[in-house]
C-alpha cells in the first residue's frame, strides 16, 4: 500500500496523567476549581508575630477597659447611703453597722449582697443571728435577733447573763440596759452554756415570767431580789415593791403599772404581798 504510512499503536495512557503546556505552571487550576478531596485540610490564615502581639494587646486593653469601667460603675452606683437596723438592744445602731459593713467595699450594696447571700452573721455576743437584706442599690436593712435573756447575776466582777432556762449564754464586763439584775441566788461556780447551779431551778421560770410581765407593761426594774424563803422584791430606783411568793404575780404587776408613777422619787416599800384579785390591798411605807 505504497505511500501510506504505518502508525504504530501507542501504549494505553494513564487516565490521571495531565499534560502541561509551555507557559503554564503546575500550580494553575482548571476552570471551575474542583472540590477539595475528603482528606485535604483548608489552609489556615496566619499572621506574623508582630501582628499577633498587636491583636493580643488590643484584646487585653479592651478587657481591662471593660473591667475598670464596670468597677467604677459598681462603686459609684451601688454605694449604701441608707441603713435600717431592727431589733438591736444590746448594741447601738452604729455598732451594728460597723460589724456588718466593716472592711473594704463594706459600703457597697452589691458586695454585701454577695457576702451575706443565703447566710446570716453569727458568733457575736448577745446576738443569735443578724440578717442583711438589700432593699435598693443604696439601701440595706439589718435585722438583729438577740438572745432571749431573762436576767443577769454578778459573779467575780463580771455580769453573767442567763436565758429562760437558767443557761449562761454570755459573760461580760459591761452591763446591758433593759435586763434586770437578779440577786439572792446562791451558787458556787459559773460555766458558760451550762445552767446556773442554784438550789431551786424552777426559779428561772418565775424570773422569766416576771421579766415578761414587766416588759408587757413597759416597766423596767433595776433588780429582782429573792430572799431566803424565795419571796420576791422588785427595785425601781429607791422604791421597793414586795410581791411575796409566786401567787397572782401577773395581777400584781398589772396593777403596779398604775401605782408606780406615784412612787417616782420616793424612798420606801410598796407592800403587795397580800394583794389578790379579791382583796386588792396594798400599802406604802417610807424609809
Give a description of the structure.
The chain folds into two domains: about 80-145, Roll (Ubiquitin-like (UB roll)); about 150-285, 3-Layer(aba) Sandwich (Rossmann fold), CATH 3.40.50. It is elongated. It has helices spanning about 50-75, 95-100, 110-115, 205-215, 250-260, and strands at about 80-85, 125-135, 140-145, 150-155, 160, 170, 180-185, 225, 230-235, 240-245, 270, 285. Helix 4 (about 205-215) runs parallel beside helix 5. The chain is an alpha/beta fold and about 290 residues long. The longest helix is centred in the first third of the chain and has 29 residues, at about 50-75. It contains five helices and twelve strands. A six-stranded mixed beta sheet has the order 7-8-9-10-11-12, with no helix packed on it.
Query: Span from first to last CA?
Result: 168 Å
Oligomer: single chain
- What is the CATH third-level topology name of the largest domain? Rossmann fold
- Radius of gyration from the alpha-carbon trace, in angstroms: 44 Å
* Average of the residue pLDDT scores: 81
Give the total of domains.
2
Determine the structural class based on helices, strands and strand pairing: alpha/beta
CATH class of the largest domain: Alpha Beta
Which CATH architecture of the largest domain would you pick? Answer: 3-Layer(aba) Sandwich
**pLDDT < 50 runs, ≥5 residues:** none
Q: Write down how many β-strands occur, each being a DSSP E stretch of 2 or more residues.
A: 12
Task: Give the number of helices.
Answer: 5
Q: What fraction strand?
A: 15-25%
Order of helices and strands: HEHHEEEEEEHEEEHEE
Amino acid at each position: 500500500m505504497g505511500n501510506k504510512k504505518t502508525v504504530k499503536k501507542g501504549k494505553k495512557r494513564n487516565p490521571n496523567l495531565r499534560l502541561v503546556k509551555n507557559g503554564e505552571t503546575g500550580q494553575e487550576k482548571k476552570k471551575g476549581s474542583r472540590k477539595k478531596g475528603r482528606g485535604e485540610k483548608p489552609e489556615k490564615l496566619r499572621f506574623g508575630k508582630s501582628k499577633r502581639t498587636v491583636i493580643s494587646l488590643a484584646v487585653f486593653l479592651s478587657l481591662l477597659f471593660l473591667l475598670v469601667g464596670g468597677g467604677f460603675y459598681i462603686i459609684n452606683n451601688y454605694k449604701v447611703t441608707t441603713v435600717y437596723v431592727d431589733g438591736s438592744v444590746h448594741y447601738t445602731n452604729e455598732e451594728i453597722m460597723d460589724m456588718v459593713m466593716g472592711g473594704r467595699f463594706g459600703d457597697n450594696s452589691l458586695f454585701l449582697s454577695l457576702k451575706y447571700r443565703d447566710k446570716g452573721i453569727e458568733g457575736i455576743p448577745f446576738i443569735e443571728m443578724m440578717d442583711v437584706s438589700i432593699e435598693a442599690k443604696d439601701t440595706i436593712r439589718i435585722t438583729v435577733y438577740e438572745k432571749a435573756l431573762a436576767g443577769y447575776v454578778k459573779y467575780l466582777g463580771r455580769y453573767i447573763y442567763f436565758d429562760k432556762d437558767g443557761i449562761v449564754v454570755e459573760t461580760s464586763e459591761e452591763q446591758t440596759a433593759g435586763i434586770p439584775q437578779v440577786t439572792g441566788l446562791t451558787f458556787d461556780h459559773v460555766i458558760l452554756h451550762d445552767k446556773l447551779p442554784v438550789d431551786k431551778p424552777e426559779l428561772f421560770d418565775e424570773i422569766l415570767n416576771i421579766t415578761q410581765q414587766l416588759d408587757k407593761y413597759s416597766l423596767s426594774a433595776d433588780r429582782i431580789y429573792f430572799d431566803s424563803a424565795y419571796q420576791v422584791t422588785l427595785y425601781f430606783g429607791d422604791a421597793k415593791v414586795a410581791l411575796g411568793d409566786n401567787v397572782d404575780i401577773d395581777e400584781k404587776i398589772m396593777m403596779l403599772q398604775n401605782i408606780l408613777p406615784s412612787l417616782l422619787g420616793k424612798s420606801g416599800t410598796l407592800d403587795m404581798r397580800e394583794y389578790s384579785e379579791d382583796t386588792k390591798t396594798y400599802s406604802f411605807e417610807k424609809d
